[in-house]
Amino acid sequence: MHLTSNTPIADAANSIRDLDNESITVLGECFDPNETGYVLRAVTDYLIEIAYGLHRLTVTRDAIGTARCLALCVYATHIRPASIAFSAANGDLPALRMMQAALLLCADARMTLITGPFPSVGHAFIRTGTVDTAIGDLLERGLLPTRARGDLYAMKQRISASAARFHRNHGSGIKGGNRNENMLALIANDAGEPWRETAAALAGEWKAAA
Q1: Are β-strands 29-31 and 24-26 bridged in parallel, bridged antiparallel, or unpaired?
Q2: Domain of life here (predicted)?
Q3: Could you report how far apart the first and last alpha carbons of the chain are, in Å?
Q4: Digitized pLDDT (tens) for each residue of the chain, 210 residues in all
Q5: What are the sequence ranges of the domains in the chain?
Q6: Euclidean distance between CA atoms 73 and 186, whole angstroms
Q7: What is the pTM (predicted TM-score) of this model?
């Protein structure tokens, strides 16, 4: 799918899409830029950079693990999403920034604000009108200060292209009725380590919903 808008962002995004089916050679090694593990690593690095900017190389394994969990679930939304809810305390700004960026990278997702214990009843869905959404687009740079809109779009397109490749290669497994946690495991098995460990954490300790 190509963008129809005649803008620099659209032209750049279409160029990226045109290259998606080509292999890349680096130092004599040829690889597929849409390979699952490669894209998952790119999304993880992207989320960490969103949160930490120039300090991205100083983060601990906890931050990297959080970014990997988000990256894996973001990727899954472009195939068949697993029903997993994430929350972050308002005092943990890096986690909030990563979660916000992950939300915008998802094919479809929702964000919920909880001001107390998780409610068993009472859920309000809030939305804005068309004009409000257009105004929000102008403020998006403020929401993601370390990335421009074009960068976010290009990353999302990379995930989508990789997910399409994954679907072509593993269509029978996806159609076989895998439950949510098994969907993550299927992606992780294709990507290899450390993604198998990440999927296990989501399915076990984090209790991925079935």
Answers
A1: antiparallel
A2: Bacteria
A3: 32
A4: 333 444 444 444 444 444 455 666 656 666 678 899 999 999 999 999 888 888 888 888 888 988 999 999 999 999 987 778 888 888 888 888 889 999 999 998 888 887 776 665 565 666 667 766 665 665 555 655 556 656 788 888 889 999 998 988 887 666 655 455 578 888 999 999 899 999 888 876 554 443
A5: 32-108+121-204
A6: 12
A7: 0.73
